[in-house]
Every structure is written in structure tokens, then in C-alpha cells.
Design a protein that fits this description.
By secondary structure, the chain is mainly α. It has one domain: MetI-like fold (Orthogonal Bundle), CATH 1.10.3720. Helix content is 78%, strand content 0%. The protein contains ten helices and no strands. The longest helix has 39 residues. The protein is globular.
Amino acid sequence: MRYQSKPSSTYAVLAPFALFLCALGLWWLLCALHRLPATVFPTPADVWHGFQEEWHSKRLWQDIIVSLWRVAAGFSIAVLLGIPMGLWLGNSPWVRTALLPIINFFRNLSPLAWIGFAITWFGVGDPPAIFLIFMAVFFPMAVSVASAVAAIPEVYFRVAHDFGIRGVRRILLVTLPAITPQLITALRVTLGIAWVVLVAAEMVGTRSGLGFAIYDDRNALRQDLLVVHMVVIGLIGVFMDKFVLLLAKSPSVQWGYRN
């Protein structure tokens, strides 16, 4: 098997930055050559001016704070309920056999299908958006945790039983350390889902946030602001993903039952 070295930290920073500059240069060139008319897509200068407009008006910061609050609320509730549900499913074959098909049914439903019910039940504002995020995160989280728990070798539970480790202590000392890698991956994936769903939910159920800003920009034919908010949404998503990855690199993380 051929050995492949890992990229250095300098390369990890410079390579994406260089590609960004190339993409920006190509964008500017296409606009300068009129291959990309302003009626179809804004120029880099228009987007920059739009960003300055949003920055000085402070609307951008307000939308960011509102969107992050909704994601934090819906995601936290879903994780706090989804992890115990997954542990229950993973530890009990009888419960897993009975409930997993139902949970998979709801997991395969698009969270956006609940928009009509969310608005009917909760009105407009924060509650419907938080509810949609919960529906998007809870079921994938429960299934991921259940699968991770079910995959733990039985011998580890037998050893724990021999040492008198049962109940909550077994979950804390055996189960959770064993599934930590899978749990972090599940958090990373579901956080991305939550962010995508939030933007869509804010387009119809709220009057604030980055999703509503996208909707408002489209109606106002402000393509420059549309690109500004698209860039902000993408950058926040990248930073959130990096934050979860930092958890995976923490020395305190117990990397599974292999250790």
C-alpha cells in the first residue's frame, strides 16, 4: 500500500485561499468581458457595495444573531432528546425492532413538509423555525446513536457487568466513550442539516433572519444583496463545521472502545 503524506497546515490555508482568488478573478473577468451580464449576476464591485450597505445598516448582524439563536435552540432540543432516544434504541433490541421503522419513516420525510403544520400550530416567528430544525435533527441523531450503540462489541458490556458497572454508570463509562467518534460525526452532519433547514424555514415563517433576507432580496430584485447573504450563510456554515471538528481533535475525547 502506497504511503501518502498529509498536507501541511500552511497548505491547508493557502490552497483554499488561492482557489478563492482564482474564482474571484474569473468572476471579475467574465463580468468585465460582458460574458456575465449584470442583469444575470452582480459584479464583485456591486456585491462589495451591497455588503458595505448591510454592514453600516446593522441589519446583517441582526439577521445573523436571530438565525444563530434559532439554530441553537432547535438543535439543542433535538440533541438533548435524540441522544437518549438513540441510547434506548441501541441498548434494547426489542425497542429497536419496534420503533426503528417508525423513526426511519419520519427521518425520510423532508422537514420542510412540516412547514404548513408549523405555521398553523406555532404561528410566525421563532417557534415554527425552531420546530422545523428539531424535526430535521432529532430523527437522524436518534438513528445514528442507535446504530453506534448497537455496533459496540458485546464483550465490553460483559466485562462491565462483571465489574458491577450497570445502569447509568454503564452508559457514562462504557457506552458514551465507545460511540464518541460516531457521535461527533452525527453532530457535524445534523448541524449542517439544521443550518440548511433554518434558511428555508425563515423564508416562509418569519420576518427576520438570513433566510428571510434571501427571500426579501429576491422580491426586491437586489441580486447584490442576495449574493452577500448567500456568502454569509456559507461562511457561517463552514465555521460551525470547523467548530465541531475541534471537538474531535480535543485530547479529552475518548476515541472509542479501541482505546
